[in-house]
Request: fold
Amino acid sequence: MTNHDFSRFSVPSAEPLQIAVVGSGYVGLVAAVCFAEMGHEVICVDNDQRKVDALKGGDTLIHELHLPELLNRYRNTRVRFMTDLAEATRECQAIFIAVGTPQSETGDADLSYVEAVACEIARTLTSYKVIVEKSTVPVYTNEWIRRVIERNGVHRELFDVVSNPEFLREGTAVADFLHPDRIVVGSDTPRAAALLAEIYAPLTSGTYYQKPDHIRGACSTAAPPPLLDTSTKSAEIIKHASNAFLALKISFINAVANLCEAADANVEQVARGMGLDRRIGARFLRPGIGYGGSCFPKDVAAFRSVAEQMGVDFTLLCEVEKINVGQKKRFLSKVRSALWTLRGKRLAVLGLSFKGETDDIRESPAIEMVKMLLAEGCSISAFDPAAMDRARQVLPPAANLAYEESAYDAARDADALLILTDWQEFATLDLALLHKSLRYAIVIDGRNLYDPQVMVQHGFTYLSVGRPAATPVRDFVSIS
Ligand code: UDX
Reply:
């Protein structure tokens, strides 16, 4: 059932709603503080007591813009942290499940955490609640949650299950949550849909954007975000299909970049030419060493697996994955083409997180590259503005791997500098100082952060992705 009548809920209610959020990872924690910022009373539940204590004390645990200020504003007042899901269930009208759905060995999403939460909620349900699935899950998960709760003896009238996928990106998570392109609410009953409409009314009515200290972003009172009312299954598919499509867009431009390299064309020009077509759009056409992070690799695999289980040929997604893996191998060949042999070479590496402005290294192409370079016998001096502590936890300590305090420290006496993550600060380095620090003025940029002409003017040999190699006239020539 879709197209419920929300007109009654287009203005926020005077009373705050009571919301529970289960899971305090990126999605859960950001949702919890943002619901508070929208005026609601929130209980954020996590079964990890240490995390709960840290959050109560004001430690966000993740590096995310606006999160420290919102956590400090609302912690222990409008957002309470606890481990007790039963208490949260009793007190709240809506319970958002935002626990992890990691990838299993077969590529499927592992839904055991979601199931465990559903069972625990079922044990305490005595009055009507809406259970909202916010984690990225395969189609039919809502039906399973419903079945599990009923199997635990809860009457169907006492609850509804809704799918409300989250589209926030790491690094801009708070602004993305409060300024979404769209809010998707997949529900099969008007009662549940109405509660979700009420929760999001501060955004959809535009009143949030009138608050003098509101977090700035693309939405405004004049242009509030739309709420899309769908069936639960459609909402589940919207999330997977969106992430898979974005991953496909990146793999597509990476394949085009490889073609540009072969044809001596420039992928930046090609991407611009494509992106100006409004049907294609300019975003997510940045080539590089491949996509990573906690979502795209996992969601592409899970979507492929869902299609396979339902007998639908979606091998297109296998190609998306193949191109993504291939980008790292191509980059390694590029390093080799610039330096000839790799054993014993000293390389400066800028960037370890899976993308700029985050300390997250999950499925980071940069970490994979470092592993590949170490296996080739290189020695590495790495710098990342935020992800070095996390990198230390996954990269085994080695004599040939050092972590430095700055990009220039990493560059000191290196045979070449590699840019692996698109941190903004790596795009504005002091090129003269960098030139002086390096042993050889060679920059191999896996994120296309610089204009090749500018690099040549500063005396660098500059290799990037999908653009002709740029070399100062009397210097070194790359042999591929
Ligand atoms: C993504 C989705 O964008 C978000 O909607 C969803 O909720 C979670 O997954 P996130 O993982 O935070 O968000 O990062 P995103 O900015 O989408 O980048 C993902 C990866 O793609 C990064 O490794 C990034 O470097 C890479 N990327 C992105 C490219 O290589 N080229 C691009 O043009 C864009």
User: Anything to note?
Assistant: Residues 166-170, 243, 246, 250, 284-286, 288, 291-293, 295-296, 354-355 surround uridine-5'-diphosphate-xylopyranose (CB under 6 Å). The chain is about 40% helix and 10% strand.
